Amino acid sequence: MRGFLSVFKRELRAYFSTPLAYVFLVIFLFFTAFLSFQRNFFEMRQASMRIFFSNLPLLFIFLVPAIAMRLWAEEWRTNSVELLFTLPITATQAVLGKFFAAWSVIALALVLTCPMVLTVCYLGDPDPGPIITGYVGAFLLAGAYLGIGSFFSGLTRNQVIAFVLSVVVCVLFFFAGSPTVMNYLSGFLPMNLVEAAESLSIESRFESVQRGVMEVRDVAFFGLLAAGWLWANTVTLGQRRAMG
Amino acid sequence: MIEARDLRKSFGPIVAVDGVSFSVQKGDVLGFMGPNGAGKTTTMKMLSCFFPPDSGTAAVEGYDIVKDPVEVRQRVGYLAENAPAYDEMTPEAFLKFVCDARGMDRARRTAAIDRVAESCAVTGVMHQPIGTLSKGYRRRVGLAQALVHNPPVLILDEPTDGLDPNQKHDVRNLIKKLAPEKSTIISTHLLEEVDAICNRIIIINEGRLLVDSTPAELRKREGGELDQIFRKLTRGGRKARVAGGVS
Hints:
The complex is a heterodimer.
Chain A: H1 2-17, H2 20-38, H3 50-68, H4 70-78, H5 80-84, H6 91-111, H7 114-123, H8 128-155, H9 159-175, H10 179-186, H11 191-199, H12 202-210, H13 216-242
Helix pairs in contact in A: 1-6, 2-3, 2-6, 3-8, 3-9, 3-12, 4-8, 6-8, 6-13, 8-9, 8-12, 8-13
Chain B: E1 2-11, E2 14-24, E3 29-33, H1 40-47, E4 55-60, E5 63-64, H2 69-75, E6 76-79, H3 91-101, H4 106-119, H5 135-147, E7 153-157, H6 165-178, E8 183-187, H7 191-197, E9 200-205, E10 208-213, H8 215-222, H9 226-246
Parallel strand pairs in B: 3-8, 3-9, 6-7, 7-8
Antiparallel strand pairs in B: 1-2, 1-4, 4-5, 9-10
Helix pairs in contact in B: 4-5
């Protein structure tokens, strides 16, 4: 716990002692508002946040890898990884400490969108269910993307490579269930594998969450996705260290 | 105390460390010498548990580097080559982080940071980002980080590299002053440094241990000055390798 907390605190401070967190927060808040209003947030005349939430998965595809790309690539580039892994900290503690620090920045970004909720509540009488599940779902979705971002950041000392690879994989997971991908896959894969690919789709899962339906398996899906990538992150960090 | 037994480590086809064994007792300052690429840094990284050896092991203060890396790290102060640190942090925040990670409570932490800031002469730059510091200050911040928990074992990879002559002198005096209570390994290319602070010397080349002796004994046995002996011992290996390659 001590190792986790020390890494978590250091990492969180690093976000705010450089412009990174501020740039992220401003860009995120700007785009969430801009995309919502552009898509007739008011003209719909419905007291709901659906438009706001529907933009988040795509926005996160770019913004979450942007916040994750430095997590490990920076350590490799400056060689501070050698300092970190000669402190009495386990790799798991370090990986989780960094992950939760980045996740906290994203959580803060989501909290700062509260004026949207207040506006909707002021103008009408919205159903709180979809708003709550929307926020929880967005937070979990960001965690899953962050796991992917942290993994690729651990593979390279180059932040741009980490960013590009993370975006590509996030896109793959997001569109896994879309008709185009399904048609393509069914051309050469047996049906049960195509269905398996569809079940990995983030898009369809997030859609049900936005409607206010959140099942245990949705939470488990995002949680397992993040945990799986973080586990791979820990393993590859050990292997990279052993390679010198 | 450090007890290394038959340490081996390869990176792909390159054998970096090839069966190195030695021991360091409390009070020893071991000068670790060898040409660039001889395996000094790799050996030090294994002893400080950055990565495990391919085979062989070592005990640091009774803990095995393969089985108990976290316990070993708790007892080792390690200064890596080029003194890596987090550039955006100030030395004060950086040392606090290291103390936190090492589980030191607040009272102990404040006293420890004051102590190392003074002994490593970084008091004047405690509030400047590390990224803006000169090479000499940066290295001394790294040294402070290695000493802050008052470890029984010190592993310092070129601790005086990049320091001016006065700073070199100060750091050597500091190591000398701490030495009686600790087991210390320093790697260096400076033969005068070995003479100044080390009571033992190890020379390795191409991953193999060539000499494990004291500076005085080595001089007596081989005859001549340390730099001549160093050249004689370490050039042989390369010549033999080149000759082998041609045939």
